[in-house]
Amino acid sequence: MMMHRRNVLMIAVMALALVGACAKKQPPVARPTTPPPGTGSMNRPPAPPEPVAEPTPVPPEPIAEDSLASRDIDEINKNSPFQPLLFALDSSEVDATGQQTLNSNAEILRKYPTWVVTIEGHADERGTPEYNLALGERRSLAARTYLISLGIPADRLRTVSYGKEFPFDPGHNESAWAKNRRAHFVVTSK
Amino acid sequence: MTYMRLLAVMFSVAAAVALAAQTPPQPPPEQPPPAPPQQQSAISTRITSSPGMQPRIAVPDFIALSSDGETAAAAKTVGRVLWDDLAFEREFYLIARDTYQSIPQPASLEQVALDRWKELGADGVVVGSVRKTATGVAVQVRLLDVSSGASVMAKEYTGSIANPRLYAHTISDEIHQTQVALRGVARTKLAFSSNRDGERTTNSGSPRDISNIYTADYDGANERRLTITRALDIAPVWAPDRTAIAYMSYRTGYPDIIVHPLAGGRYTTPARGTADARNYLPAWSPDGTRLAFMSSRDGDPEIYVVNRDGSGLRRLTSHPANDVTPTWSPTGTQIAFTSDRTGNPQIYIINVDGTGLEKITSESHCDRPTWSPAPWNEIAYSSRAGAGNNIRIFDFATRSSKPVTDGIGNNESPAFAPNGRHLAFVSSRAGKDQIFTIARDGKDLRQITRTGANKYPNWSQ
């Protein structure tokens, strides 16, 4: 990745120099065609310089299935394709909405069959910290059990409970609590 | 760790010196009185006070017998901390320190102006001195009976000057033991988890605030960090012999029970956690040989017991509901825990052999039991009341419970002091979660922590 960045940088510097030196000439850099499939944005040469002023920035890669596969795990988790599974107060039951959530999460797991996920169980702040560890454990296990019933292999589904230690919304109201009662999906290996 | 060693050294020295120091501090009675039974030997070792009244005690600053600043500071600290320690148990009426100003400090323990203390209404006055020695300090203390002038307790302690508060704590425990036959808690400690250092996880995804394990004296002084992991470490519990603290840690990515020896050396993981056998919330048996904990290794949260060395793993509960937060009875024969098998969380007890399951509470939500030390036979727990939780105490004798906290803020995670007279707990009443202590009758609330958010208190023996 470092190498790629450096290459991109060098090409950009060269391109800039060329814009200044031979603004009227056609740049000798080969105009890139579409990148070869399966490569990320990192090793793509920059857009060719326009005759005017600054070179335009690299346009963002259109979101494609392949780009998800090629991202590193941190990138995937920062902008996760998985939806959180939300729960009612003191409940670890997967309701109809929850089943839809898990169905779509299962689709992603089928599409990327090497991914292993950790399902984190979380709780809102209203129970005690200790009881919430058990509640989070049940929530993560409930999500796992449902995904296994959909045919996702058990060894791709790890679970852990964080109780109320890591709230997603630090607020003290129903809207925050609703977000914090969840099974949260994190990709742990791919 | 060095702290513990200091304590040990102090005791051995103190025991030796105490023998010499405890020469009968008063002349023998001229004529053996036909001692009334309630006075017998007590007359020579206890403060005399008005019948039915708490003894009124004054604790002025100790006398610095060496002229350096360190000794002067230590002498002040010992007196002030001792005043607080004695006030904590509420066995004595502690005369306010600001009324002592008119009484000049004597040059030595032999020149105490008893008549002045009598004027102030004191039944007893604790006087002491601090003197530099070749190796550290010598702290002398006397408890003077103001009416007779007798010294009913005299001790000398020697050791390091590094922690003067420890002399005060030791003297306080000695006074409680000899005067009112009470096991004081001045030398006990608290463990808790805290996010005060603002560290974050390096886990995949978004970084999160982590907590690590800290300890402090019972009054919140001498806070020290025990664990340094970029992971969540919570729920510490002192081994009964204070040689180790067990807690749960996510340092491997899944939660497991860590037994962390305080004298150094490698930690152990007796519950042998894995990604598939996650372990939560350890609780030491009273003899320190076993740990109870929660694990969902068999598919759902259940209570397990394992020997400290990792042998003898046993599952205690068997119900598809949540069984969590074990706590041992003082005899080590029963375990109380929380279960939501009837819907809402309630407190249950079970024999350690797995028989005798019994539900003991039936309020709306009863959670996180902690069994009192003997001779009390009670369970403190967290009870949901409206938006927050309150600490309540269930008494097995009356089969009823009474509140300890008053509905201010959210109050959770009670932990008994080893003498059963106080509880540490977490409250949000001051903003962020902080550790507080409170007397078992709900009086004398004290805030212990103030930095960061602090949770999961546990009180050492």
Please describe what this structure looks like:
- The complex is a heterodimer of chains A (190) and B (461).
- Chain A is an alpha+beta fold and 190 residues long.
- Chain A folds into two domains: 63 residues, no CATH class; 119 residues, OmpA-like domain (60s Ribosomal Protein L30, Chain: A).
- Chain A is built from six helices and four strands, in the order αααβαβαβαβ.
- Chain A is globular.
- With 461 residues, chain B is an alpha+beta fold.
- Chain B folds into two domains: 153 residues, TolB, N-terminal domain (Rossmann fold, 3-Layer(aba) Sandwich); 271 residues, TolB, C-terminal domain (Neuraminidase, 6 Propeller), CATH 2.120.10.30.
- Helix content of chain B is 15%, strand content 34%.
- Chain B has five helices and 29 strands.
- In chain B, the strands form seven sheets. In chain B, strands 1, 2, 3, 4, 5 and 6 form a six-stranded mixed sheet that branches. Chain B has a four-stranded antiparallel sheet with strand order 9-8-7-29, with no helix packed on it. Chain B has a four-stranded antiparallel sheet with strand order 13-14-15-16, with no helix packed on it.
- Chain B is globular, with a radius of gyration of 24 Å.
- The N terminus of chain B is likely disordered.
